[in-house]
Amino acid sequence: MNTTKTITLAYTGASGMPYGVRLLELLLAGGNRVYLLYSQAAQIVAHQEMQLVLPSRPKEAEELFSRRFNAAEGQLRVFGREDWFAPVASGSNPADAMVVCPCTMGTLAAIAAGLSQKLIERSADVMLKENRKLILVPRETPFSSIHLENMLKLARSGAIIMPPNPGFYHHPETVQDMVDFVVARILDHLGVAQSLMPRWGE
Ligand SMILES: Cc1cc2nc3c(=O)[nH]c(=O)nc-3n(C[C@H](O)[C@H](O)[C@H](O)COP(=O)(O)O)c2cc1C
Questions:
Q1: Contacting residues for 176 by C-beta, under 8 A, at least 6 apart
Q2: Residue whose CA is closest, atom 18 of ligand 1?
Q3: Does the beta carbon of 109 sit less than 6 angstroms from any atom of ligand 1?
């Protein structure tokens, strides 16, 4: 299994920021290159859920997370919301895969409609048009028919829809166990080695 990839990771303002932060930690620990993007609402939710201040300046976020997760020089790059010069903005330089985790219904709808008004939307649009892996981790409950139709449209366009639904058959004892269940499944789909959770039957 190829363990070093370039992954675009986007945080939007849905509940579930611990999934996204854990995913970043493990992608970096595995030696992968990460392009990190986040929406304004993600900054609000990160603070609400984790007391995590996501800096408005990409360079500051790069330094913060690189220090926190011991990333190598250049391993993590953070891009602004409308940085159209970022590599992820173009089909000529797409990442190997992209994950939107957590993904709001708003961003899901914008991607389904092909709006590309923010870098997250454009980057996801590029992944679809270039036939690269796009994983969306949508969080809402209940889903309306609008949400479900958008998800169906995206699934039919090649996106992988992975709601953060932890299973209970591995007997989780902590919230971290439940977070890791979801993150392990995402890493499996990215083809990134993980030792968080054995696969069924192993
Ligand atoms: C604490 C908090 C939790 C939220 N949780 C969700 C959620 O689980 N799903 C969702 O679709 N929107 C949620 N929202 C609303 C979105 O943040 C809001 O629709 C925002 O405009 C989405 O923008 P974005 O897609 O650019 O991040 C939440 C907002 C806050 C403040």
A1: none
A2: 13
A3: no
